[in-house]
Structures are given as structure tokens and as C-alpha cells.
Write a structure and sequence with these properties.
Elements: E1 22-23, E2 29-30, E3 36-41, E4 45-46, E5 50-56, E6 61-66, E7 70-73, E8 84-88, E9 99-102, E10 105-108, E11 115-116, E12 120-125, E13 130-131, E14 136-142, E15 147-152, E16 157-159, E17 165-166, E18 170-174, E19 184-188, E20 193-195, E21 201-202, E22 206-211, E23 214-215, E24 220-226, E25 231-236, E26 242-243, E27 249-250, E28 254-258, E29 266-272, E30 277-286, E31 290-296, E32 305-311, E33 316-321, E34 324-326, E35 328-331, E36 334-338, E37 348-352, E38 357-359, E39 369-374, E40 377-379, E41 383-389, E42 394-399, E43 402-403, E44 406-410, E45 413-417, E46 425-431, E47 436-446, E48 452-456, E49 459-461, E50 465-471, E51 476-481, E52 484-485, E53 489-493, E54 496-500, E55 508-510, E56 513-516, E57 521-523, E58 528-531, E59 534-545, E60 554-557, E61 570-577, E62 584-590, E63 609-611, E64 617-621, H1 624-633, E65 634-640, E66 642-652
Parallel strand pairs: 4-11, 13-21, 23-30, 40-47, 49-58
Antiparallel strand pairs: 1-2, 3-5, 5-8, 6-7, 6-9, 9-10, 12-14, 14-18, 15-16, 15-19, 17-18, 19-20, 22-24, 24-28, 25-26, 25-29, 27-28, 29-30, 31-32, 32-36, 33-34, 33-37, 35-36, 37-38, 39-41, 41-45, 42-43, 42-46, 44-45, 46-47, 48-50, 50-54, 51-52, 51-56, 53-54, 55-58, 56-57, 59-66, 60-65, 61-64, ...
Length: 656
């Protein structure tokens, strides 16, 4: 009995029945209610295979006649519907025309049918034993001389060029690398296939052992097993696959591979040529540094080095002081790591590329020590020295809880500058790691000013009431924000005042001025941020003489000075005219290309603003383009016979 399975490349053959007078495809006359044969195929077709006949009302077909005269009745048709059916091509059919017979008539194909040779597989051997790569297999059958390849169920193919022998009735071929157990198929040049009834049994590789199992990157591991010459790659847990071209060596029973740097703990897997993945029963354990000892290179202090000794330290890829990473070097079997500024007391953690870590013993870091003040008492506004140890670690300082500026003179001395906001109290020093040390003794502050302000509201809007506490307030005759006098008080006492910020105060930061009953003036050391009806943003204050050579400019470009400028802003440039020339000029340009601002329209032919002798300021309401240009690239001011003293902009305070 023949056993065939194949795929046929189809070529449709158009045929039509003629049973009426309607015009059909290509001018054929068809009966719309009769039988229409639209196509049959494939052509050529394999003898013994099915031919498809497609059309309309083909369930009325009674027989199909193959040349020469071989008639197949409708009882042998397959998968019959009104639109199609199949009929098996007889083995002894010859080339020629196919006739389709239906109730009331018949039609013969316009194209002659032809055939491909009906190759088949009758047996394969050996099937009574397990085979390995290279073993010979014999296939017996018919028309095997037309076979161009033999395939296995997993897609591995043996090309005819690798056949050991081939004839019409027999093929001998070797088991291919990566082939698996199961049926095989033979195929011709057109892709037609015929499968075997029997299965081949093909032995696959296996892992027996892995050694050593405790490793470090760079070690060579030996995998033992069977058929290991059919392995395509080896993969260590967490690492990239090692392909066969990178094996140290390979035989049927052993594979040697070098352990990669990114290996993690876990099993080893091998991938066979058949794409099967096999995993070792043993886990690989990656070594970590051990026998650790840590010592300071000089002292345990931020910025200095620690020295770590032990074994396998070359595996270390990271050194952390708590949660803070450190720069480190490895040489002479030791690690030197820099103590970061933000490091705190505790253990160091060494990490490896394998995702493993190990801790050292704990260390205690140096902290600032406060020994004394010199002098121990100063007038507010004066400086004093703080004497101690490791003071170069200090990042900020407070006096009686109030921030105080300082200069680091050396590791043993800080110079702190007081102001009228400071009062007698303890000095606290804070390091980058958050550690704070506080003096045992108070630093004494005295005052030369009459009015002492201990506290003042730090931020308010025009029209708000603010509170100020301190002493000697009875000596205050009046209070000014710049040139604007305070007129509304809800409380005036010697140690507390509550007053309203006048509506005419522009937004900005102020150190308010006190006019005393004696006529003297004092400035409050505490500042207050005022959000005015109009907010003022100062960009430049100084005195830049632009001269008469056009070579000097006030360059306010590319410094992000206008980043927060909103639409609707007004630009101001203040200046002094500097000589008796007949004219002075100011030119306002965007920083990107020094083109004149488009909002500045009162310019001469050279883009300059002619300003009168003795005038002091120009101002322009900026359009959308100019605001965008200033935000992006800033401003450049040039001119002739002027000295630029101030550049600022204002915008409405919409919250007021």
C-alpha cells in the first residue's frame, strides 16, 4: 500500500460548461441556473493525488473522465459542495483533456492535464535501534531519484548533495546534526513531500556533571556528558550565551568553557543543535571576596582613603559606604576607596558583577570638634574665629539656630561673620553627611545699634500686615520700604510692631529702613520678600561705561537671566549720559544674533535709541517675540556716551 503526503504547487485551469445563452467569462455562454466549471487543478498534478474542481452547482456533476477514458463516478468524489469537490487522479491516467459530465451535458477542459511522478516511501531502516549523528539510514520506495532533500520533524534537512547514494528505489543518507526522533519526509524540487510510516529513534545529548561548581570569572569549567559535539551554546545563569566557536575545547564527552564575568549563582544550561535546552543538576556558586580587613590609609575621614585587603578582591565592581558609592582602585591585591563626603559610620559593602556582595567591619568617621571661640564676645556685625579639629568637613553653621556665614581658614579654624539678626547662643556645625556637632559654650553677641530686630515676617504681599519683634522700637519714628513710608500701624510697642506694607511698594526684597527719633537712620538686618502689585526682577546693577568706540557692551546673553520672564513684561534700562557730545545712544539687542528688539521702534537707521543729555531711563513694553527671544538667549546692551547702571523688568502680580 502506498503512503503519500505532499504539497502541490497549483495552476488553475479555466473551463466552463455551456448550457444556455448568457455571456460568461471570456465570452463563454453559460446558463446562470446551470452548472458552471470555473477551474480545475493543480496542473501538473501528482497521480494518486486529489484534483480540485471549482464552479457553480458542481454538486450536479455525475462523473469526471480522465484520459484515456478512465471515468470516476460521483460516488467517489470527496468534499462535495455546490461550489467545489475533489476527485482522485488515477495512477494510470495519461496526459490529455479532462471531461466533466453533469446532468444535461458535459464539458471538456481547454488545457491538457499533465503529471508529476508519484514518488512514495515504502520503508525506512534501521528503526530497531537508537541512532546518532552520522549514522546511515536507508529509505526505500518509488521514484526516489526525483528526491532533492530529506527532512526531520523539527525542520532539520539533509540536502541531496549529502546523500551517500540515490537511485529510483533507494536513498542512503546520514543522520544530520540536530535531527530528532520521529517520522522523516522526502521532498522533490517542487516541494512535494511524502512521509514515512515508521519513526526513527535518534539519541540526544545529555549532561552528566559539571566541575568545578565553585568558580570565579576566568576559570575553566568542564561539562561532561554524551554527544556534546552536538551542543551549540553553553549558558551560565545570568550571563550571555557562549557559542560553540568560543568553547575552549569540545569532544563527544566533554566541553570546556571559560566562566564569563557576569555569571550569577545557578545551574549551567546547554542548548543542543536540535534547540533543546538541558540544565545541569548542580548549581554553580560564584566566589565573593573573603578574609576582609579594612584600615585607614591615614584616618577615617571624608576625602581620605580606606585600604581593604582580602582574597578575590579583583572581583569587586562597586564599593559603597552605606548607600553612597565610592571611587576605588585595585592594585597589589588591595582596594583603595575614597571616603565620600556624605558617608556615615558603619560597614562598607563590596559588590561583584555576579550580583553578590559582602560587608566589611564597621568604621567610625571623623567629625568636627569645637574647642573654643576667639574672641568669645563680639558686637553684631563683627567676625569671630571658631577653633577646633576637622573643621574642613563643615558645610553650614548656625548661631542660636540662625544661619551664619563662614569661611574655612583651615581644618582647625573657621571665621564666622555675625549680623544684627544673630543673638547669643550655641554654634552648631553641620557636615555633608548630615552629622551636626554643637558647641558646649555660648558665643556672646552684643549690639551697637539702638533698634534690635529679633524676628520679622519673611514674605508678604502689598497690603498685608507684617509683624516685627525685638527691642527699642520706641526709638523708631518711621519705617520705609525703599523710599515708600509706612503709614498704617495696628500695633506699636517697644518690643513688637505690626504694620501694613503700602500699596505703592514694588515687588522685591527689602531691608527696611528705620528713621529714629534722634534723626539717625538704621537698616534692619532681616530682609522681607514683598510681592507687589508689580513684580520687579533685577537683571543687572553696576556701572559700565560704554564709551564712544562701540566696543564695550553689557552682555546679559546666554546666562539664563530671563528664564522666568512672563509675557506682558516691561523692560527698563537705566543709564547716565557721560559727556558733552551732541548726542548719546542706547541699543537693545537679543543675545542670539544681536538683532534689535522688535518692540523698540523709536530707533534711527542704525537701530539705536537717541537719548537726551541728562535723561536716565528707557522703558519698553515687550511683545511676545521679544519675550521669547530674551528667555531663549538673553539681552545685549550697547551704546554711545552712556554709562549703564541698571537693567530690570517688571510684570503685573496677577495674584494681587
Amino acid at each position: 500500500m502506498k503512503h503519500l503526503k505532499y504539497y502541490i504547487m497549483a495552476v488553475a485551469v479555466l473551463v466552463l460548461t455551456v448550457t444556455g445563452c448568457d455571456k460568461g467569462p471570456d465570452g463563454y455562454e453559460v446558463d446562470g441556473s446551470g452548472t458552471v466549471i470555473e477551474a480545475l487543478g493543480p496542473n501538473p498534478v501528482l497521480r494518486g493525488a486529489d484534483m480540485n474542481i471549482v464552479g457553480q452547482h458542481v454538486d450536479r456533476v455525475t462523473s469526471v473522465i480522465f484520459p484515456s477514458g478512465i471515468e470516476i463516478g460521483s460516488s467517489d468524489f470527496k468534499d462535495v459542495t455546490s461550489g467545489s469537490f475533489k476527485v482522485t487522479v488515477p495512477m494510470d491516467a495519461v496526459p490529455g483533456y479532462v471531461k466533466v459530465v453533469y446532468k444535461g451535458g458535459s464539458y471538456e477542459s481547454k488545457t491538457a492535464i499533465s503529471y508529476t511522478e508519484p514518488f512514495e516511501v515504502t520503508s525506512i531502516s534501521p528503526t530497531d535501534k537508537a541512532l546518532v549523528m552520522g549514522d546511515e539510514v536507508t529509505v526505500k520506495g518509488e521514484y526516489l531519484n526525483n528526491i532533492t532533500s530529506i527532512g526531520f520533524v523539527n525542520g532539520v534537512v539533509v540536502d541531496s548533495t549529502d546523500f551517500i547514494s540515490q537511485s529510483r528505489y533507494e536513498i542512503v543518507f546520514p543522520i544530520a546534526r540536530g535531527a530528532v526522533s520521529g517520522k522523516i519526509y522526502v521532498a522533490d524540487v517542487n516541494g512535494n513531500q511524502a512521509y514515512s510510516d515508521e519513526d526513527l529513534t535518534i539519541t540526544q545529548p545529555s549532561i552528566v556533571s559539571v566541575s568545578p561548581t565553585t568558580v570565579r570569572p576566568g576559570d575553566v569549567v568542564t561539562i561532561t556528558g554524551t554527544l556534546l559535539d552536538q551542543i551549540d551554546k553553553v549558558t551560565f545563569s545570568g550571563a550571555s550565551a557562549i557559542t560553540v566557536s568560543d568553547f575552549t575545547s569540545v569532544t563527544k564527552t566533554t566541553i570546556k568553557v571559560t566562566v564569563p564575568s557576569d555569571i550569577h549563582d545557578g545551574p549551567v544550561s546547554i542548548t543542543t543543535a536540535a534547540a533543546a535546552v538541558l540544565e545541569s543538576s548542580e548549581d554553580m556558586t560564584v566566589k565573593v571576596p573573603s578574609g576582609l580587613a579594612i584600615t585607614p590609609e591615614t584616618r577615617y575621614k571624608a576625602g581620605l582613603n580606606v585600604v581593604i585587603s582580602g582574597t578575590d578582591l579583583d572581583l569587586v565592581t562597586g564599593v559603597d559606604f552605606g548607600s553612597v558609592s565610592s571611587d576605588f582602585t585595585y592594585s597589589d591585591s588591595k582596594i583603595k576607596a575614597v571616603i565620600p563626603e556624605t558617608a556615615t559610620d558603619g560597614k562598607l559593602t563590596l559588590s561583584t558583577a555576579a550580583g553578590k556582595s559582602v560587608d566589611t567591619q564597621e568604621i567610625t568617621l571623623a567629625k568636627p570638634v569645637i574647642s573654643s571661640f576667639s574672641p568669645s564676645s563680639v558686637v553684631a556685625g563683627d567676625k569671630f574665629d571658631l577653633i577646633g579639629e576637622d573643621l574642613d568637613l563643615v558645610k553650614s553653621a548656625t548661631l542660636d539656630g540662625v544661619d551664619i556665614p563662614f569661611e574655612t581658614v583651615s581644618a582647625s579654624k573657621l571665621t564666622l561673620t555675625t549680623s544684627a539678626v544673630h543673638a547669643t547662643g550655641k554654634v552648631a556645625l553641620k557636615c555633608a553627611n548630615g552629622v551636626t556637632v554643637t558647641s558646649d559654650n555660648d558665643m556672646t553677641i552684643t549690639y551697637n545699634s539702638i533698634v534690635i530686630v529679633n524676628s520679622l515676617t519673611s514674605s508678604a504681599s502689598v497690603g498685608d500686615y507684617v509683624t516685627m519683634t525685638g527691642s527699642k522700637f520706641n526709638m523708631i519714628e518711621s519705617i520705609y520700604f525703599g523710599t515708600v513710608k509706612v503709614t498704617d500701624y495696628s500695633k506699636r510697642e517697644d518690643n513688637e510692631m505690626i504694620f501694613k506694607i503700602p500699596d505703592s511698594v514694588e515687588g522685591g526684597t527689602y531691608n527696611i529702613k528705620f528713621v529714629l527719633t534722634t534723626g539717625d537712620e538704621e537698616t534692619c538686618p532681616s530682609s522681607i520678600d514683598v510681592k507687589g502689585a508689580v513684580t520687579t526682577v533685577n537683571i543687572f546693577s553696576g556701572s559700565t561705561d560704554l564709551g564712544t568706540g562701540w566696543s564695550t557692551v553689557v552682555n546679559l546673553a546666554w546666562q539664563n537671566l530671563f528664564n522666568d520672564m512672563p509675557q506682558g513684561s516691561q523692560l527698563y534700562v537705566e543709564y547716565e549720559t557721560t559727556n558733552d557730545d551732541s548726542y548719546s545712544q542706547v541699543k537693545l539687542m537679543r543675545g542670539s544674533d544681536w538683532a534689535v528688539l522688535t518692540s523698540v521702534t523709536d530707533v534711527n537707521a542704525w537701530g539705536c535709541i537717541d537719548v537726551a543729555k541728562g535723561s536716565t531711563k528707557v522703558t519698553y513694553a515687550l511683545n511676545t517675540q521679544d519675550v521669547n527671544d530674551l528667555v531663549a538667549a538673553g539681552l545685549v546692551v550697547s551704546g554711545y556716551s552712556v554709562k549703564i547702571t541698571k537693567v530690570y523688568y517688571t510684570y503685573p502680580n496677577t495674584s494681587k
